[in-house]
Specification:
Elements (H helix, E strand, L loop, with lengths): L2 H24 L18 E5 L2 E4 L5 E10 L7 E9 L12 E6 L5 E9 L8 E11 L2 E5 L1 E7 L45 E5 L7 E6 L3 E6 L2 E10 L12 E6 L8 E7 L6 E8 L8 E9 L8 E6 L6 E5 L21 E5 L29
Parallel strand pairs: 1-8, 2-9
Antiparallel strand pairs: 1-3, 3-6, 4-5, 4-7, 7-9, 10-11, 11-12, 12-13, 14-15, 15-16, 16-17, 18-19, 19-20
């Protein structure tokens, strides 16, 4: 054999060996669960989660199924954690929280995780939640890690409105609205300038010609219905008020015999410590007072800056002053003041302030109050 032929055979042998090696690496026939496994992937595979939806049903549970997929099968095991997050759907009421780990063994490209949805018969809007993927391990990238779940409400519409027309002929209800009816608002005084942080608007007894606007900062402003574009300051107690957040000038009431009795009552949080005050203010002029005298009737300490309540009003038939107090602050009534009848916080108070000597006693507890015989609460 010539030297030339020897070289040629060597070259042919090398080509055959290369072809055999390539065939061996291809793995021959395919495997299950997502196609051929790439033994030497050029890069990591991508992990994604689909969106999902389901009708809630009237009872029991429905399955909201999310599919998590790999862009290609992999020779190595890939794991990813999942957990539900509430959206407009409420955990425990609309669905059961779900969390765990999905494991993709070699060759597997898809897995399903389920969120149980709680059925009910309440007519409501469609609701949503999300499933979030995290803590990915293995030869993979997180391409889409959030799946949106939609819970469709499938309950029948309940008619709204009056079931019967009133018999009178002067106050007629409009036709029954549809289930999708909305409520609109209208500015009754578009010519009036903007007010700041309004906490109450009211009119004096028997006088529909003026509106009084209470601003959180500590100012009461007034304007004539006939000329809303020109409001003026009626009373200014900003120097006495701690304002901000849920604090400030929070309530106002006129003496039931106003203007013959030139008195107004204001509820506010006191500058310095934020204690709640209810005070009587005696006016030198009921049209445009230039001098006011304050008489502090009731003080209630506050242990936080929120949940102050603060509105006040005279009862239309008993003449007593009603004062609504919040629970004093914090989340969830931490001091349980709303359940404590020896603490004024978290209560609707009713006191007699008309014709009662000042400063002692300043106010009286009505005799028909079921707690009137208890020791006086205070200072909180």
């Amino acid at each position: 054999m010539s030297k030339r032929n020897v070289v040629k055979l060597v070259r042919i042998g090398a080509a055959v060996a290369t072809a055999l090696l390539a065939a061996a690496c291809s793995g021959g026939g395919g495997g299950g669960g997502g196609g051929a496994v790439n033994q030497n992937p050029p890069g990591p595979v991508n992990v994604s989660i689909t969106d999902a939806s389901v009708a809630e049903g009237d009872a029991g549970q429905a399955n909201l199924d999310f599919t998590v997929t790999l862009s290609a099968a992999d020779a190595d095991t890939i794991t990813v954690d999942y957990a539900t997050n509430a959206g407009s759907a409420v955990e425990g009421t609309d669905y059961v929280a779900a969390n765990g780990t999905l494991t993709f063994v070699a060759g597997v490209t898809s897995q399903t995780m389920t969120v149980p949805v709680v059925g009910d018969t309440d007519e409501e809007n469609d609701e949503t939640l999300t499933v979030v993927l995290s803590n990915l391990s293995g030869n993979a990238n997180l391409a889409d890690g959030t799946g949106l779940g939609t819970i469709f409400d499938d309950d029948a519409s309940v008619p709204v409105g009056l079931s019967q027309r009133p018999s009178n002929t002067t106050c007629l209800a409009p036709p029954r609205p549809t289930a999708g009816a909305s409520v609109g608002t209208e500015d009754p005084f578009p010519a009036s300038p903007g007010f700041s942080s309004i906490t109450k608007i009211l009119q004096a007894p028997g006088d529909g010609s003026r509106w009084f606007v209470v601003e959180r900062s500590g100012v009461v402003r007034v304007f004539d219905v006939a000329n809303p574009a020109a409001p003026s300051t009626y009373v200014d107690i900003t120097s006495s008020v701690l304002s901000g957040g849920e604090r400030g000038l929070l309530g106002m009431a006129f003496h039931p015999n106003f203007p013959a009795t030139p008195e107004i009552y204001l509820s506010y949080t006191r500058a310095g410590d934020g204690a709640s005050h209810v005070s009587r203010f005696i006016l030198n002029n009921t049209t445009a007072p230039t001098n006011v005298t304050e008489q502090v009737l009731l003080t209630v300490d506050q242990f936080a800056g929120n949940h102050n309540g603060g509105d006040i009003a005279f009862g239309p038939d008993d003449g007593y002053l009603y004062f609504g107090l919040g629970d004093g602050g914090g989340g969830g009534d931490p001091n349980e003041t709303g359940q404590n009848t020896t603490n004024l916080l978290g209560s609707m108070l009713r006191i007699d302030v008309l014709g009662v000597a000042f400063p002692v006693p300043g106010y009286q507890v009505p005799a028909d109050n079921p707690f009137a015989g208890n020791a006086k609460c205070g200072p909180t």
